[in-house]
């Protein structure tokens, strides 16, 4: 083999070797939800209260009602996602173009920016209302005692999450990491 072929082989093999070494160095963090993983890591513990409803002592009828509500919501979400995909893409592209036009203009147009931001906020508000409606339907299945029990579980989960995010000295963990650097 001549020198140019050897050089090409080394050039191709070197990135592969480094990529393999870094994946071995990361270990199984991705499987266990470590840094960069999608598993059930620390973020999963503090991710909200969605699973708390199933820690309640639900009757079989309540479990069935919740299952039905989930399946109906899932079907609605799937139908909405598939409906007018091209139109949604066009709307996003138009919104991006409008934002770029506002940002790249020679002089900033505050009124146009406020109007654009207001439209985005109203879309977000609509999504929040739909989410609250879905949660209301789920909580309407519960009895008053179960709702109180849920609130207690929610408070406990929030306290656990806060404790987990703080270090031994009471400082938040991300501050500790920044101080260590």
Automatic annotation (TrEMBL):
GO molecular-function term, one example from the UniProt record: unfolded protein binding
Subcellular locations according to the entry: Periplasm
Coiled-coil residue spans: none
InterPro entries, per database record: Cpx_auxiliary_protein (IPR052211), LTXXQ (IPR012899)
Chain intervals for the UniProt region annotation (Disordered): 156-181
Segment forming the signal sequence: 1-25
Superkingdom classification of source: Bacteria
Record keywords, A-Z: Periplasm, Signal
Compositional bias ranges of the Basic residues kind: 163-175
One Pfam family recorded for the sequence: LTXXQ
Cellular component, GO annotation: outer membrane-bounded periplasmic space
PANTHER family: PERIPLASMIC CHAPERONE SPY
Membership in a protein family: Belongs to the CpxP/Spy family.
Protein name per UniProt: Protein CpxP
Organism: Marinomonas communis
